[in-house]
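pasting for ref
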Amino acid sequence: MASQPMRGSDYTPDDIDTLVRQLCKFLHRQHGEHHSVVVDFDVMAVFLMQEMGPKLHIRKIVLLLLQQFESVISPTKKPNTSSPPQTSIQSQLLQAAEAVYTRIQDYDDGLSTSKPFCLRYPTYSAVLEHSKAMQNQCDILPNDRMVVLLDEAGVCVGVGVPPNPASSGRHMKPDIRAKMTLDDTVSTSSWDTLDGAAKSKGMHDLKIKITKKQIDLDELQGYKSLWRTKPFTSLLPNPLRESQNTLDVQAMAKFRNEITYYSKLSLWINKAFLPKAASIAEDAITYLKQHGSDLLRDNLANEKNLIIASRTISVNHQVHTHRDKKNALLFDSACFFGNHNGGEFLLPTLGVAYPGLHGYSFHGPLRILLHGVARFHFPANLHEPPRRYSVAFWSRASSFAAVARDSADRDGKKVKTFSSTCVAQYES
């Protein structure tokens, strides 16, 4: 009889190290066979437009930032009206402005024959109109290998990763483990069975529906006759003090342990493609461990990806095209699970879409990139509940900014150790 795969909460540090080694081998093999796609885009220019205003021309934005933050490229002619960057976002804006200025200047000087993206779409309003036009014209990217997306300057703007086929008796396939956990979470009743309990109000069993002649048996113990065939798992008591969101916390704790593979995948994609930014983020987390509250330390001790520890789970939700404005400038991750068809991950500004089927994941600066989900559907002969899950891993920019501010305050405003960088050029 085959042994049951171990629970995620039973993983020892050695088990996690083994999982990470297998993951890194898979990523190394995928990267060796990856497919590069150069998209018509300039991530740094669009970042500037988003931060400064939808109607401002990119030339005006760049010149304003260079002079405001005392760049050697274009110093201001007015004394006492500028200062060096004082915060993380100011440093990121200056870095992006200097990069975009160089590309514009090369075009103006005739060193580049093709007109840059930022001059063809010089305002964010123009970028949005372009994205709307491309929404239904996205090219589907390959699904059999890793895909690396590069903008016109060679900056990596996205990485698509197919499912990992590796599995063993001890380590269940990560995509199957994730789906099983998600299925279990959404199938678990959040109501207890104590008569009169506050959480039980509104259950079918508390109100026996009676027709004109007899009791409606289909409604007596649940919704129709589903209770007869669907197994029910009772809830174990929680001896700790309960709160209103106890069940949510319990579900997220289990999910965190069962998706260790995808947490580590998100972490190592960032360490591989954004090594400097990931290193700065890790230093910020170390700072939090030293100076954070007891609760924060306890929470960090259980996380598998400390720099991108926030998670959002969507079930059968048609996500409209948007961008995640509050996220940090790391690579967020979107992972997909379920028994659906379709549901490609749309990147309309880039003109491409990545497969959104079970086990696939996309990683990129979703604070900047507009993204959404194409229509998905379920097979007609499906004999299990129709489920399409989207799991997003992300981090909040304000968290890292707060660490930088606190560090500067403790050091007498002399040290800016945690001033994070903008997305960097890709080196294969």
